[in-house]
Specification:
Elements: E1 2-7, E2 16-19, E3 22-25, H1 36-44, E4 49-54, H2 62-72, E5 76-81, H3 86-99, E6 104-109, H4 110-114, H5 116-122, E7 128-130, H6 135-146, E8 157-161, E9 164-167, E10 201-205, E11 207-208, H7 219-223, E12 228-229, H8 232-246, E13 250-254, H9 262-275, E14 280-285, H10 292-300, E15 303-311, H11 315-320, H12 327-338, E16 343-350, H13 357-370, E17 373-378, H14 386-394, H15 419-434, H16 437-444, H17 450-464
Parallel strand pairs: 1-4, 1-5, 5-6, 6-7, 10-13, 13-14, 14-15, 15-16, 16-17
Antiparallel strand pairs: 2-3, 7-8, 8-9, 11-12
Helix pairs in contact: 1-6, 2-3, 8-9, 9-10
Length: 467
C-alpha cells in the first residue's frame, strides 16, 4: 500500500517551518528544520510503501508535487499544516482528491489539533484531522481503513459521520521510548544545515508535554500538560544512529525544557560525555529551572546555546501571561548561563496584554544587554489558548482569516498599542539588535560558513517584510 507524507510547498513564496507547535518562516531561524514528525510517521507506518516529500527543502512546486502524487498513486496522503500556510496546505489535499477521489487525506499539525471541527467544515477535501501527536492515531487509522474497519474507537482523530463531525479525544503517548526512531532515511538529510557552520543537523525529541499555563502558548494543546521524557539510554541510541548512519553531529534537542527534571538532564549529559561522541547541540529551557551543575554538564556534553522564553521585562505582562516567572529569576538564570560558554537566545513577545510603548522599549534594552541572539514576535492569540478565549469574549481579535495568525502580524485590538506600531517596533527591534557593532563583533567569530553569511545578508529583507 502506498502512503505519501507531505510537507507542502512554499505558501505565498514563504518557506514555512511546520513542526508540532512551531510555525514560522525558515528565514526567522536562517535555517530549515527537518520535518521530524513526518519522519516519525514514516517509522510507524512501515512496512508500507511510504514516501516522504519535503517540498520546502526539495524546492518542489505545487505543479511538481501533482506529478509526484500521480506517479506514487497513494492510498493515503498525510499533509503537514500550520496556521500561516493553511490554505496552501489544504491545496495539497484538494490536489490529491482531484487526482484520485479514493485517496484518503489526513491533516496533522497544530491547525487541525485546535480547529478540528472547523478544518473538516471548511475544507471538504480533507477526510481526517489529527488532534495532537499523530504517530499512533495515523498508524491506527491506516490499519483500520486498510482492513475496512470503522475509525470510531481511534483516539485523536476527527472525521465526518451522518450525525455530524465526530471528535475523538487524544491520548498522548505516555512511554516515548516505545516509539521507533524517526525514519531519517526518508529525508534528504544533506538539505538541513546548521546555520553557523553549514554542517548537517537534525532534531532529537527529548520529551513532550508542558505543565505550565502560559496564556499564549500551544505546547500543552498539542502535546498535553503532563511532561513525559524519553530515557537517557534511548536518546543516546538515537544519537549514535545519527552519527554513525547519517554522519549528523549537530542537533536541536527538541522539547519544552531540558531542566524540568534536572536529575534526568544531568544523567543525559553524563551519558553523552561517557559515549565519547563529539556532538554540538542547542536546546530550550525554562530559565528559572536551571542550576549551575546542570549547565556545567550541558557545556561538557556539547551544548552551545540555550533558548529561553522571556517574553517581557514587565512583571505586569509576565503575571497576566501566567508565566510563573519573575524578573529577578530571569536575571538569576542569565547569570548562571553566563558562567559558562553557552550562548543565550531570548524569545520576546511584543503586544501581550499589559504591554505599553515604554515596556516594549525597556524589554528591547534588556535584550540588547543580556542576550547573544533574540527572536522577537507579535503576540498571537491562537485558538486553543487562554489568550484566544479571553480576547474572543472581549471582541478584541482583528483577524480576518486563519493565515492572519502569524508572528509577524499584530491582530489584537488595543487602544494602547495600535497594530501598525507593534509591527513596526518588532521590525526595528530586529534591526537595532542584530546590526549593532557589538552584536556583530560578538558573534562574527562563530560564523564559519559562507552559506550562513549569504543567509545573513538576506536577513534585513526578511524582517523588513514582516516575515
Amino acid at each position: 500500500m502506498n502512503i505519501l507524507l507531505i510537507n507542502p510547498p512554499a505558501y505565498n513564496n514563504i518557506d514555512y517551518i511546520r513542526e508540532s507547535r512551531c510555525m514560522q518562516s525558515k528565514d526567522s531561524w536562517t535555517a530549515l528544520w527537518p520535518p521530524i514528525t513526518l519522519a516519525y510517521l514514516g517509522a510507524v507506518l512501515k512496512p508500507h510503501n511510504v514516501r516522504l516529500v519535503d517540498c520546502i527543502a526539495e524546492k518542489i512546486s505545487f505543479k511538481q508535487l501533482s506529478n509526484i502524487i500521480k506517479a506514487h498513486n497513494p492510498r493515503f496522503v498525510v499533509v503537514n499544516t500550520a496556521f500561516p500556510s493553511i490554505y496552501g496546505d489544504m491545496k495539497v489535499a484538494k490536489m490529491a482528491k482531484e487526482l484520485n477521489s479514493n485517496t484518503v487525506t489526513i491533516a496533522i499539525g497544530i491547525f487541525p489539533t485546535v480547529l478540528s471541527k472547523q478544518s473538516l467544515i471548511k475544507f471538504l477535501e480533507l477526510d481526517y484531522a489529527v488532534i495532537g501527536g499523530p504517530e499512533i492515531p495515523v498508524q491506527k487509522l491506516v490499519q483500520a481503513l486498510d482492513s475496512k474497519q470503522s475509525p470510531a474507537g481511534i483516539p485523536g482523530i476527527a472525521y465526518r459521520q451522518r450525525q455530524g463531525i465526530k471528535l475523538n479525544k487524544p491520548e498522548p503517548v505516555k512511554k516515548l521510548d516505545s516509539l521507533p526512531f524517526p525514519a531519517r532515511e526518508l529525508l534528504k538529510n544533506n538539505l538541513y544545515r546548521f546555520p553557523l557552520d553549514n554542517k548537517l543537523f537534525t532534531l532529537i525529541t527529548l520529551g513532550r508535554g508542558c505543565p505550565y499555563n502560559c496564556t499564549f502558548c500551544l505546547a500543552s494543546a498539542y502535546n498535553g500538560k503532563i511532561f513525559r521524557k524519553r530515557s537517557a539510554d534511548n536518546i543516546i541510541q538515537e544519537l549514535r544512529e545519527c552519527v554513525s548512519k547519517y554522519n549528523i553531529k549537530n542537533f536541536i534537542f527538541w522539547n519544552e525544557s531540558i531542566s524540568l527534571d534536572k536529575s534526568w538532564g544531568i544523567e543525559l549529559c553524563n551519558k553523552i560525555i561517557e559515549s565519547g561522541m563529539k556532538i554540538k547541540w542547542v536546546t530550550a529551557t525554562r530559565i528559572d529551572t536551571l542550576s549551575e551543575e546542570l549547565l556545567r554538564k550541558m557545556e561538557r556534553a556539547g551544548c552551545i546555546m540555550v533558548s529561553v522564553g522571556v517574553e517581557s521585562l514587565s512583571q505586569k505582562v509576565l503575571d497576566k501571561a501566567k508565566k510563573q516567572l519573575s524578573v529577578d529569576k530571569i536575571l538569576k538564570g542569565i547569570r548562571l548561563i553566563q558562567k559558562t560558554k553557552i550562548r543565550i537566545m531570548g524569545h520576546f513577545i511584543f503586544g501581550l496584554p499589559g504591554y505599553t510603548k515604554e515596556s516594549m522599549k525597556k524589554t528591547l534594552r534588556f535584550a540588547k544587554k543580556h542576550f547573544d541572539y533574540c527572536q522577537f514576535y507579535c503576540a498571537v492569540p491562537y485558538p486553543g489558548t487562554e489568550l484566544y478565549t479571553t480576547l474572543k469574549k472581549q471582541g478584541k481579535i482583528r483577524a480576518r482569516q486563519w493565515t492572519d495568525y502569524d508572528f509577524n502580524k499584530y491582530i489584537i485590538a488595543s487602544d494602547e498599542l495600535p497594530a501598525a506600531e507593534v509591527e513596526r517596533f518588532r521590525e526595528s527591534a530586529f534591526r537595532s539588535f542584530y546590526f549593532r557593532p557589538v552584536t556583530i563583533m560578538r558573534n562574527i567569530k562563530d560564523i564559519t560558513s559562507p552559506a550562513f553569511i549569504m543567509r545573513l545578508l538576506k536577513f534585513p529583507n526578511w524582517f523588513s517584510k514582516g516575515r
